[in-house]
Inverse folding.
C-alpha cells in the first residue's frame, strides 16, 4: 500500500513538478523532472488505492490555474474514470490554446489516446 500524503504535500509536489516541467521546456534538468514523475506515479497509485481521498485531492487540484497541473490532473481523471467530461473539456481547452506551448501538444496526445483506446493508462515508473 502506498503511503498517503496530505493534500498540502500533494499540492506542493504538483506545483514543484509544474515549475520543473516549465524549466525543462527551456532546457532544464530532465532528470529532476523524471524524479518528480515518479513521485506523481506514486501519488496516482495512492489515488487508485483510496479513491475517495484521490477524488478529494483531484477536486482540489482542479482548482489550480496552472496549465501544467491541470493537464496532469485531467489525465488522472481519465485514468480513474472520474469527472471525465471535465477532464476532456480541460484537455480540449489546453489543446486549443495558443499560449500553452508544449502542454497543448501533450493535451492533444492525451485526448487522442483516450478516444482511440477508450481508456487512459498512467505508466508505471
Amino acid at each position: 500500500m502506498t503511503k498517503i500524503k496530505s493534500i498540502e504535500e500533494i499540492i506542493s509536489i504538483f506545483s514543484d513538478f509544474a515549475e520543473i516541467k516549465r524549466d525543462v521546456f527551456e532546457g532544464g534538468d530532465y532528470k529532476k523532472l523524471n524524479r518528480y514523475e515518479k513521485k506523481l506515479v506514486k501519488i496516482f497509485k495512492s489515488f487508485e488505492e483510496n479513491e475517495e481521498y484521490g477524488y478529494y485531492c483531484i477536486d482540489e487540484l482542479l482548482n489550480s490555474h496552472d496549465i501544467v497541473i491541470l493537464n496532469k490532473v485531467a489525465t488522472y481523471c481519465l485514468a480513474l474514470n472520474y469527472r471525465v467530461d471535465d477532464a476532456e473539456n480541460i484537455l480540449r481547452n489546453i489543446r486549443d490554446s495558443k499560449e500553452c506551448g508544449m502542454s497543448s501538444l501533450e493535451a492533444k496526445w492525451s485526448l487522442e489516446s483516450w478516444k482511440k483506446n477508450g481508456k487512459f493508462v498512467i505508466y508505471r515508473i
